[in-house]
TrEMBL record:
<protein>
    <recommendedName>
        <fullName>Peptidase S24/S26A/S26B/S26C domain-containing protein</fullName>
    </recommendedName>
</protein>
<feature type="domain" description="Peptidase S24/S26A/S26B/S26C">
    <location>
        <begin position="40"/>
        <end position="164"/>
    </location>
</feature>
<keyword id="KW-0742">SOS response</keyword>
<keyword id="KW-0678">Repressor</keyword>
<keyword id="KW-0378">Hydrolase</keyword>
<dbReference type="InterPro" id="IPR036286">
    <property type="entry name" value="LexA/Signal_pep-like_sf"/>
</dbReference>
<keyword id="KW-0805">Transcription regulation</keyword>
<keyword id="KW-0235">DNA replication</keyword>
<dbReference type="GO" id="GO:0003677">
    <property type="term" value="F:DNA binding"/>
</dbReference>
<dbReference type="GO" id="GO:0006281">
    <property type="term" value="P:DNA repair"/>
</dbReference>
<dbReference type="InterPro" id="IPR006200">
    <property type="entry name" value="LexA"/>
</dbReference>
<dbReference type="GO" id="GO:0004252">
    <property type="term" value="F:serine-type endopeptidase activity"/>
</dbReference>
<dbReference type="InterPro" id="IPR050077">
    <property type="entry name" value="LexA_repressor"/>
</dbReference>
<keyword id="KW-0238">DNA-binding</keyword>
<dbReference type="GO" id="GO:0045892">
    <property type="term" value="P:negative regulation of DNA-templated transcription"/>
</dbReference>
<keyword id="KW-0234">DNA repair</keyword>
<dbReference type="Pfam" id="PF00717">
    <property type="entry name" value="Peptidase_S24"/>
</dbReference>
Length: 171
């Protein structure tokens, strides 16, 4: 631990006050300070049975009243980033729990096995699942051994974004 703190101090990120227990000060000239951005929280996403949400064309990211402040390195220069509150337990084996917040990047296609926000058009519901394209259907796979996958027609699925980060709620 002391080795890593010495490196941070040498690089100018922190100042240590050795006479005080846990005496570490983050320095103002540190390159990580001031590089924050606001991510809109636009609603909830089901991690379990799909839940009704506003249709994707009515999501108004710019008008979202609730935001989350994150460091730019978490976003890594991506465009179209938004946040959703997770409701349900279908992704617990992927370490996404009820109440967590997922940061999403808006995309309309994902690779097999990627976690995505999936809009089920006919049901007008959204769910958070791992997505797999199969020959004649799409498998929406929960990351919970106690739950079964959902199988849907390709024409009934609209990808609304991929998970790029998870913010854990500890309380």
């Amino acid at each position: 631990m002391d080795y890593n703190l010495n490196i941070l101090e040498k690089e100018g990120y922190i100042r240590r006050h050795r006479e005080v227990s846990r005496g570490i000060e983050l320095l103002a000239q540190s390159p990580v300070l001031g590089r924050w951005c606001q991510v809109p929280i636009i609603g909830q996403i089901a991690a379990g049975e799909p839940i009704p949400v506003p249709t994707p064309d009515t999501w108004d990211i710019a008008a979202s009243s609730e935001t989350l402040e994150v460091t730019e390195d978490l976003i890594r220069g991506r465009d179209g980033v938004y946040a959703l509150k997770v409701k349900g337990s279908s992704m617990v084996d992927a370490l996404i729990n009820d109440g967590d917040i997922v940061l999403m990047q808006y995309v309309n296609a994902v690779e097999n096995g990627e976690m995505a926000a999936v809009w089920l058009k006919a049901e007008k519901e959204a769910t958070l699942k791992k997505v797999y394209s199969e020959p004649s259907r799409i498998r929406l796979q929960p990351a919970n051994s106690q739950m079964q996958p959902m199988y849907v027609e390709p024409g009934n699925v609209e990808i609304q974004g991929r998970v790029i980060a998870v913010i854990r709620q500890l309380v």
